[in-house]
Amino acid sequence: MAMRSLVAITAAAALAVSSFAAASAGTAQATWTTSDKAAALHAAHHEANRIGKHTDSTGWPTNVHRVTAVIRSGSVPGGSNTGHPCGRGQHAVITLTGRFPKIIVSGTPGSGNTEVHGVIATTKLGSRQVCQLSVQTGKVTPAPNSVVLFRR
Predict the structure, then answer these.
(1) CA atoms lying within 13 Å on the CB side of residue 89
(2) What is d(CA 111, CA 75) in angstroms, rounded to the nearest whole number?
């Protein structure tokens, strides 16, 4: 199976996710159900395995250090970039933190930082299909009110 190229993810998509997170930060936080967490964990695990290195006894790729998720409401800015619809409503914004050397980016304007430390996957809440992907270089900080789905 050919790996989808994450090179095509633009700085605009990363900015869209940041804007989505910031715009919905003031909204009331939804409660995670067991099935919502399971779906977010499944989506995170799928992306981690797709972009990760060897797995260890935890079942996670060794280069993934932490997985967090937060619920956001509204439309996803920029819409889908994976072919799966994002739609309107509640979404799980999942952040995989670690080192992702397979992902090549041109760098952050002004800093030249090209090492990806975060992969942000957005799903419709309760869905296992990622509708938007973006990457983050530099330090990755979990979003306020996020839940930890995995940590080394």
Answers:
(1) 8
(2) 30
Residues 87-139 pLDDT 10s: 899 999 999 999 988 888 876 666 677 889 999 999 999 889 999 999 998 88
Provide the 3-class DSSP secondary structure of residue 81: coil
Classify burial at 50, counting beta carbons within 10 Å of its beta carbon; exposed 0-12, middle 13-18, buried 19 or more. middle
For residue 24, which phi and psi values (nearest 5 degrees)?
-100, 5
CA distance 88 to 103: 29
Neighbours of 133 (CB within 10 A): 22
**Which residues make Cβ contacts (< 8 Å) with residue 104, sequence separation at least 6?**
6, 7, 114
Can you read off the two tokens belonging to residue 132? 């938007």
* Closest of 122, 83, 116 to residue 101, by C-alpha: 116
